[in-house]
Amino acid sequence: MVTVLDIDTYISQVNQRLKAAKVRVSVERRGSKLWLRGTLPPKSGSNQTKPYRQKLSLGVNATSAGVQHAEKQAKLLSAQLDTNQFDWKEWGQSWEETEQVPKLGTVGDWIAKFEAEFRPTVESVTWKTDYHNVLKHLNPDQEISVELLRDAIARTKPNTRTRRRFTLTLSKLAQFAGLEANFKALQGSYSATQVDPRNVPDDRTLAEGFYQIKDPGWRWVYGMLVTFGLRNHEVFYLATEELEQYKSYMVTVLEGKTGSRLVWGCYPEWIEQFNLMNKVLPNVTGKEHQDYGQRVTKFFDRTFSFTALDVRHRWAIRTLEFGLPYELAAMQMGHSVKVHEETYHRWITADTHQKVYNALMLRNDRPRPPAINGRPPERSSVPSPQSN
User: Fold this and answer.
1) CATH topology of domain 197-347
2) Chain centroid to CA 387: how far?
3) DSSP for 144-212?
4) pLDDT tens digits for range 340-373
5) Cα separation of 124 and 122, whole Å?
6) pLDDT digits (tens, 9 = 90+) for 51-70
7) How confident is the model over 320-342, as pLDDT tens digits?
8) Alpha carbon of 62 to those of 301, 357, 382: distances in Å?
């Protein structure tokens, strides 16, 4: 006996074949009957002016033989649509027998449901940047559709972080609303790993940049960013008591994109050189993390040729040069080991390797190779390489 589950599996296999063959029609089961679904022209007398998604009854039962018949009919219907030969009369359907897909609801309705479902599961700043800043570009009064969401993605610049963010967010919204959408082809090639390490300033440039700043508050913010590798908004959400009391080279990020964490200064000499023990914030205000991040971004835009993110990248590379295990560096930066590896490991140059080698292999207290015949090997006469 063929069960409903078996039939649904069979229909799914048929639809996979149809999709692979670029057939524009799919097979559906409604109760015990089979239907075809596709974008069909409006029938005479309809108030529609353009083709839209409709279902067409085949009048056959949901059996194995019925599914085989439906697959053939789907191919025939698709071919007629491709060659502009489709005619409602040929399919023998009355208007009442052809079901128009009901309206799915407005964008605003679905955004409200989406927010109620997912906002409690993510950080506030993540919701703001990854979801709200995308969804606010949609017209809440329009009916939600695949075409509407695709157009919103297409309006963003290709191969950018914004395009990637729109694609991911609107794909989730489409799935949540039950739309059959695949926007993967629109996403582009943007990745954090595409950042060019040649654009990252070296440490001399960063140190010299500190002395270009006149305002004491922005001096302190800049010094904290270059020394601790913080995100731009996190410098306003720090516990610095231990640093101020000369107890350690560590500060605590109290809140931000990835919550609370501990971060240590690198270089520790910069803490004293930049007078970071004496906390002085610039005279700026904001209600959310993003507000403070924008203040920092604008400061860098008007002051330097590099960004606060470039400074953070440089901190990550510097920890590699110091030999800090990347698991610890990732924790201090507030992201996963996977993100750290994908973003920074390809940036390790021969110079970075040489610095780490010098720090580990040329120190006096490192392990020595075994003595042969009671005679320990002599230290190599090869001179220690000098790193720039």
Assistant:
1) hpI Integrase; Chain A (1.10.443)
2) 37
3) P-HHHHHHHHHTSPTTSHHHHHHHHHHHHHHHHTT-----GGGS-S--GGGS-GGGS--HHHHHHHHTT
4) 777 776 666 666 677 777 777 777 787 777 777 7
5) 6
6) 888 888 888 888 888 999 99
7) 888 788 788 889 998 887 877 77
8) 64, 70, 81
